[in-house]
Every structure is written in C-alpha cells, then in structure tokens.
Write a structure and sequence with these properties.
The protein is built from 21 helices and 13 strands. A seven-stranded mixed sheet has the order 9-10-8-11-7-12-13, with helices on both faces. A four-stranded antiparallel sheet has the order 3-4-2-5. A two-stranded antiparallel ribbon has the order 1-6. It is α/β, with parallel strands linked by helices. Helix content is 52%, strand content 8%. Keywords: Cell membrane, Coiled coil, Membrane, Transmembrane, Transmembrane helix. It comes from Mesorhizobium argentiipisi. This is Exopolysaccharide transport family protein. It holds the Pfam family Wzz.
Length: 746
C-alpha cells in the first residue's frame, strides 16, 4: 500500500495509543528511577565548585580640586556599552591574569596545571588520541587556559558596573583570585596613567622650548616689518594714511557744498536784479544790515509822501523832493545788491580753488593708503602667526604644569572603583543535587513516554480504519473461455489456450484486496460462471484462432520496444475484459527494463484496479480537477516495476471540463517515462485524438474476432490510423483456474 493509500484508509486510535503508557508503566518507572539514581549519585560524587564575585564601578574619580584649570566632569565622555565592553575585555586579558597567577603561585596548584596530578582517565584519553597531551602546552599557557575556563567577566545590565566571577574547588582561592583580578586591573589603570603623565612631560618639555623660540622670532619679525614699512596707527586702529584720507574726503565734501551754495545764492540775486523783481525774497539781501536800513528809510519816505499828498499836489516842491530821495534809496539798494553778488561770486571762486586743492591731496593719499593696505596685510599675517604660536605655547605650558605636578606627586585617579570585594562563598554553586536529580527524573520520564508512544504508533497497533473507507471483497475478473476459430494466426500461437490474464504473469503472489466488483457485460459474467461451475476434471474446450491476424502480448511488447515508441494507445471495444491487454503489455515492457507508466482512462477503472490494492487512490480525474499533483496520482504496480495512474476519486464531470489539459499531461509523462501506455476503453478515433503524439502506436484489444471488433478496427483505420495493430491477452499464460478469494496480478 502506498503512503497516499495508508493516509486515506487508516486513522490513529488515540485511546489505544495512550493505553500503551498504562501497559508499559512498569518499564517507564524503572528506567526513570534508574536514571534518577544515576543522576543523584553523579551529583553527590561530583567535586563541588565555589564561585566568588567582585564588582567594579566604571566612572570618573577626579576631584573638583585636582582637576586641571578650565576643565570639568561634563567635558569628559561617559563610557557607553561599547566602552564598558572594552573594559570587560581588558579585565580578562592575559596580562591581568598573568599578574594574578604569579602573585598567587597558581602554577603550583593541580587545579590549574593538569600535569601535576593527571587522572587515570585523562591519561587513557591522551594515549588513545582523544585528548591532547597537556605536557606539550607551555606551563604558563596551561595556567591561563584553566583560569579562562573558570573566569566569567560581564557587564551588569543597565549599569556601568562590571562583575568578576571566578570558580574554584577552594572557596578562599576563588575569592582571592576574583579580588586579585580587580586589584590588578585598578593597578594597571593607575600605572597606565602614570606612564601617560611621564610621556606627556617628556613630550611637552622640548615642544615648549621650541615654541618659545618660535614665538620670539615671530614677534621680532612683526616689530621689524612695522618699523620698515613706517606704518603709523591712527584712531580706530587704522593706519595714518587711511585716517587722513577719510578726513580729507570729509573736508572736500564740505567745500563742494559751500561752493555750490554760494553760486546758487549769487545766481538768485542776479536774476532778481535782471528781472526787476523784488529783492526781499533773497536771503542774502535780507541778511544785509545796510539794505535793511535803506529799506526802513524808504518806507518812512513813502509814508511822508502819502501824508503830504492829502494837502499838496504832486508837483509841489516838497513832494518832489521826497520822491527824489526815494529814487536815490532804490539806487542805493541795487548797488548794495550788486556788491552782494560780487561777494558771493568771490566766495564761490575761493571754494572752487579749495576744492581743487583737496582733490589733489585726496589722490595723493589714495596711493599712500593703497600701499599702506598691502603692508598692513603682510603685517597682519605676521601678527597672526605670532599670536597662534603664543597661544599654543601658553596651552602647552598650562598642560605641562598640570602634568608635571601629577607626576611629581604620583597622583593618578583611576576611572574605576572596587565597589564590592569578593567574599569567601559558603555554599557550592555546583553541583545542585536537587535540581539535577529533578531534571534527570523529568527528562527520563518524558523521553520514555515519547519512546513508548512512538513505538506503539510505528508498530501499527494504534491504527484503525478511517471513517468512510469502505472495502468489499474483490471478485475474480475471469476471462471468457476461448473458442476455436479458423486458423489465420501465426504458427507460434498454436497450442496456446486462454487463461485469466496475469494469473502468473509476473510471477508474484496474488494480493488480497477489498474493491468493488467491476461492471462487466452479461456475456462475460456468464462465461465466468461457466468456468466456476465446470468440473475440475472436465477438459477445457480447444481455443480457436482468430481470423484478423492479431498478435499476442509478447509480440506487442517486442514491437513497442523495437520501434522505440513513446506512447501506446489501447482501444478496447469489447469492454473491461479486453483492458487486460494494456496491463500485460505494460508489465512485459517494464520487465524488459524500460520505465513504463499505464494511464487508465476507462470509466470503471478496469485497467488500474488489478495493479493496485484499493480503489480510493487519487488519479487522472483528481489531476484534471486540480485536486492533486503528479506525485500524488502516480502509484507503483504491485506485481511489476511499472507505474500506474488510476481513474481517481474526483467528480468525472468536473474533471472532463479540463480535458484540454490531456495533451500537456501526456507530454509531461512521455518526458519522464520511456513508454506511456494508455487504456482508453471502447473509444473512437476522435476520442483518442488528444492522446496521439510523436512516436505513438495504436492497438486494438480483442477477445473474440466478432463484428464489433471488426467494425471498430475499420473505423479507426478509416479515420487516420492505418497502422492499427490488434492484440489479445488470450493465451498469454497457460490456462489455469484462479484461487478463490485471490486476484491475479492483472
């Protein structure tokens, strides 16, 4: 039975499965007690080990009074996880362990040097090559390896604390080694700081001497260049030419403004005189005291004329005298205005001359300022160089003073502190007799229970038939008795009589099976009944030969092998009984060493049932309905090396909807097998057209040469299969009567 059949036909009986625990309880309990006893004895006799733990705090230990000037704790980086992990590696480094081993003389203890006291078991393992000889390892390396095996250094979670654990047979030694490692680590950090301070002073002393000389030279260059370039500094930290240029530029602007104002005033007075307009609107005229007095006299005369005009006529001598005086006053005012114009013009000319002089001076200072700027750039560069070197000198001197004071006083605060010294342990951490014994008891009990259940499961005693799997006894598929026909066959077919196909075809024993009886024709049932009711001693009738020139199973197999055909299509117009030809030919070709697969396309599964042990196997209908894959539908023949794809268990109607996939399936099968044998049942030429391909041979299976077979052969030949060959299973093996209740290989 295949795996698919077993999975479909049987189920696990949980009650029977777990009942095996009750049946085997004594064995389970005895094994558990034995294992528990052995674990207890081993734990009791094992050498106890004690573990001591010391803890270090990683952090700054610098006092605010001893810190170098200008520094504080906030400027120092705080160790992160990687920093703490680095300190863990330093603590467990060989240098630290060597110091502790030397201080405590661990090389004199057998616990750390196996060569001092090697056990008999260890010597045997060395002799047989299962263990390296410790003598070949240097003594120092042996001690370090032993210490590494017993040492555990780790960072305490979510803290900057480091725990140092050491295990030993001697509790006092375990505590001493843990504390010794912590002390050696702190001492190494202190020594490292002292060495760093000494190296710093050795480096800074010559550097300071060199910097002092460099600063002196740089400042001398600055002074010499300033004296050579005659750069005099004015106000606002600017050179003198630049400052003078700024002042002259301001004076030039003022003179230009004054000249423009004088020219504008003279022009306004001149226009007023030329146009005969009033001079009262001119600011320069109004500001003249003489003109103001003349204006006052003019007003007074006009007032007198007005008073006298009320009593005297215009030609009166007195009025005429006053008008004459008034005309003289207007001339005097205009003369004074002309003087003002001449004064303003002279002022404008003076401003113009001053402006020209200032412009010449500004141009001269511009050239001087440009030269002073270039020299100032060079001077600034020299000054910056001197300042940088002086700052570096001051920094080095401050660092040197701080480091030198720490070196002289041998002050080296270490960023680590021993917060908990290791105490001598009173209880061993190994072995824990209770937990070891309990774990051994639980593990042995669980393993014994699992082993018992697996043994019961694999033995098959916990299996029962699956619900819904129905099997009935197989009835013998009997072949009809051969009747004698006129001789038209080949001579080597003479004397062969019919026997149920495959009764001893493959030479295998007949398998018991519970499958439903195939649907057969009434004529076949009558022939089978006649064979069963015939007397044992009654001779069978002589078979008669066919008149259609059919070949037997051996000839058909030889034909397929010789032609190298990839497909063999069998049509059985007489129904299920004739399907034996496809089965026998497939087995014959398989026995010849070729890879053969039989595809059963009959409606009743007549070709695949004799090759399998159940009708519940998935087959071609499951593949077409997409309910299974190739690996699920291909099964081995029980009586040969051939493979078979049965009809299957899927809905035929649903499967036939995907009949267009048959050519693809056939192509895949011909790629994997040397020969694919297809039993099509009573199909016609159109029905087998999807199955035909390159290297295809078409056979017509027959039992009797009647009109039904003849008509089927003629139709196939007329519809494109002229090379049709007839094959019959009759006479494949000597006739015999199948044993009741058993099935032939076919």
């Amino acid at each position: 039975m295949s795996v698919q059949s077993a999975a479909a036909d049987v189920d696990v009986d949980l009650r029977q499965l777990f009942a095996s625990l009750a049946r085997n309880w004594l064995r389970i309990v005895l094994v558990t007690l034995v294992v528990t006893g052995l674990a207890f004895a081993l734990a009791w006799l094992a050498t106890p080990y004690y573990k001591a733990t010391a803890k270090l705090e990683i952090g700054s230990r610098e006092s605010e009074y001893t810190r170098p000037p200008g520094t504080n704790d906030d400027e120092k980086p705080i160790l992160d996880e990687q920093g703490v992990a680095t300190q863990v590696q330093i603590i467990s480094s060989p240098d630290i362990l060597k110091q502790v081993a030397t201080k405590l003389n661990l090389d004199k203890l057998p616990e750390f040097d196996e060569t001092l006291k090697m056990s008999a078991l260890g010597r045997v393992l060395v002799l047989v090559g299962l263990k390296s000889d410790p003598v070949d390892i240097p003594p120092e390396e042996r001690v370090l390896n032993a210490m590494h095996d017993k040492l555990n250094v780790y960072a305490v979670e979510k803290t900057r604390a480091i725990a140092i654990e050491f295990a030993s047979k001697d509790p006092k030694l375990a505590a001493a080694i843990a504390n010794g490692i912590a002390d050696a680590y702190i001492a190494s950090k202190s020594d490292a700081k002292l060495e760093s301070n000494a190296a710093a002073t050795d480096f800074l002393a010559p550097e300071i001497a060199d910097l002092q000389n460099k600063v002196k030279d740089a400042e001398a260059k600055v002074a010499a260049f300033r004296a050579q370039s005659d750069l005099l500094m004015g106000g606002n930290n600017a050179v003198l030419p630049t400052q003078q240029l700024a002042e002259l530029s301001s004076e030039l602007s003022r003179v230009r403004a004054s000249r423009a104002a004088a020219e504008a005033s003279a022009e306004s007075v001149r226009r007023a005189l030329q146009n005969g307009g009033s001079l009262d609107s001119v600011p320069e005229v109004l500001s003249s005291d003489l003109i103001q007095r003349l204006r006052e006299r003019q007003v007074e005369l006009r007032a007198n004329i007005a008073d006298l005009s009320t009593t005297l006529l215009d030609n009166h001598p007195r009025i005429r005298a006053l008008k004459s005086q008034l005309a003289d006053l207007d001339g005097q005012i205009r003369n004074e205005a002309q003087k003002i114009i001449r004064g303003l013009s002279a002022q404008a000319q003076t401003a113009k001359a001053r402006e020209d002089q200032l412009i010449a001076d500004v141009n001269t200072l511009k050239a001087a300022s440009a030269r002073a700027g270039e020299q100032q750039v060079q001077l600034d560069a020299l000054q910056r160089d001197a300042n940088v070197q002086r700052q570096q000198l001051e920094s080095y001197m401050a660092s040197y003073n701080a480091v030198a004071s720490r070196k002289d006083r041998r002050y080296s605060p270490v960023a680590a502190n021993l917060i908990a010294r290791a105490q001598v342990p009173s209880q061993p951490y190994f072995p824990k007799i209770g937990p070891i014994t309990g774990a051994a008891a639980a593990a042995s009990l669980l393993l014994m229970a699992i082993g018992t259940l697996l043994g019961e499961l694999f033995s098959g005693r916990a299996m029962r038939p699956a619900a819904g799997a129905r099997f009935t006894d197989i009835e013998q598929v009997a072949m009809p008795a051969a009747r004698v026909e006129p001789m038209v066959a080949e001579a080597h077919d003479e004397g062969r009589a019919f026997a149920p196909y495959g009764d001893t075809a493959a030479g295998h024993s007949i398998a018991e099976a519970e499958l439903p009886r195939p649907a057969e024709s009434e004529q076949a049932e009558d022939r089978a009944a006649a064979m069963e009711t015939s007397e044992p001693g009654e001779p069978m009738p002589e078979p008669r030969q066919s008149r259609l020139g059919e070949m037997d199973v051996e000839k058909a197999a030889e034909k397929l092998i010789a032609s190298g055909a990839a497909r063999a299509i069998f049509v059985s117009p007489e129904g299920d009984e004739a399907a034996a030809s496809a089965v026998l030919v497939a087995r014959e070709v398989s026995d010849a060493g070729l890879r053969v697969l039989l595809l059963d396309l009959t409606a009743s599964g007549a070709a695949s049932r004799p090759m399998l042990d159940s009708s519940l196997f998935p087959g071609i209908t499951n593949l077409l309905a997409s309910e299974a894959q190739f690996s699920d539908v291909i099964h081995p023949d029980l009586y040969s090396d051939a493979h078979v794809i049965p009809v299957g268990t899927a809905d035929p109607v649903r499967a036939m909807r995907a009949a267009d996939r048959l050519p693809i399936i056939m192509q895949s099968l011909t790629t994997a097998y040397d020969l694919v044998v297809v039993e099509c049942g009573p199909a016609d030429a159109q029905g087998i057209s999807r199955l035909v391909g390159d290297g295809t041979e078409v056979f017509l299976s027959m039992l009797e040469a009647d009109d039904q077979v003849t008509q089927a052969a003629v139709k196939l030949i007329e519809n494109g299969y002229p090379n049709l060959m007839l094959v019959t299973p009759i006479g494949h093996e000597p006739p015999g009567t199948p044993v009741p209740g058993r099935r032939s290989a076919a």
